[in-house]
Amino acid sequence: MLEITDITVRFGGVVALNEVSARFTQPIGGIIGPNGAGKTTLMNVISGFVEPAGGRIERDGQNLLALAPHRRAHWGLRRSFQKEEIAEDLTVFENVLVQIDHGRAERGRKSAEVLRMLELVGMADRMDKPGEALNSFERRLTDVAKCLVGSPRIVMFDEPAGGLSIDETRQLGRLIRAIHDETGAQTLVIDHDVDLIREICAETLVLDFGKRIAFGPTSEVLDNPKVKAAYLGTEEIGI
Ligand SMILES: Nc1ncnc2c1ncn2[C@@H]1O[C@H](COP(=O)(O)OP(=O)(O)O)[C@@H](O)[C@H]1O
Ligand SMILES: [Mg+2]
Fold first, then answer.
1. Who lines ligand 1 at CB under 6 A?
2. Where in the sequence is the domain holding 102, given as residue range(s)?
3. Which of 173 and 84 is assigned the larger pLDDT?
4. Of 17, 29, 117, 139, whose CA is between 20 and 30 Å from 53?
């Protein structure tokens, strides 16, 4: 369980998050809301890029905010960004291996783990391809594999379906759904594609202007009039 309690973030005069609370208990949770709602900021707080003015974040009773950002990564926090971080001059295999290369496990075991995750994301047949030769979907899949090695406990995706086709989005959705069974990690997903959120997230948090306007089972949340109103008149995909 990931418990977010009264998180507040201010950037100068802007209140990016205003006492936001949510208790994520399911394998996959969604975070949605119009542009500027504070979604990415919440992930930044969880991963340690942004320090909140107040509030707590606990995973199964462990206080995540007490861990320095690099310790959070070591603890098992993984994050993918809107733009993937793929080294152009490394192969797919090497891009994933560097995530765990510093660890204590022996080389053969690390290689086996990298291979297992490349098989899971469907990139094992292209593991020798250099980063610079990858198309956008292959980059995305490689980025997912990077998040899955090294025993992750929480994996966060910020708009993973951005720029993908409908078929690619479906494939990515299936992959995200497999993460919990394959690694045990809990996953949080931000996306504008409400169909994707509905499909893969059992529970969803809705933010608007830094405030929580709904949280709970995804189908209930998407039916909530307040949530529909928040999306009206925006350029986001309608619910
Ligand atoms: N590093 C920052 N410095 C100043 N303002 C920021 C920073 N990051 C985000 N903001 C502001 O905080 C608000 C929430 O942004 P963000 O979390 O990126 O929204 P979302 O991901 O929901 O689109 C916006 O008003 C944004 O301009
Ligand atoms: Mg964002």
1. 11, 14, 16, 33, 35-41
2. 84-150
3. 173
4. 29
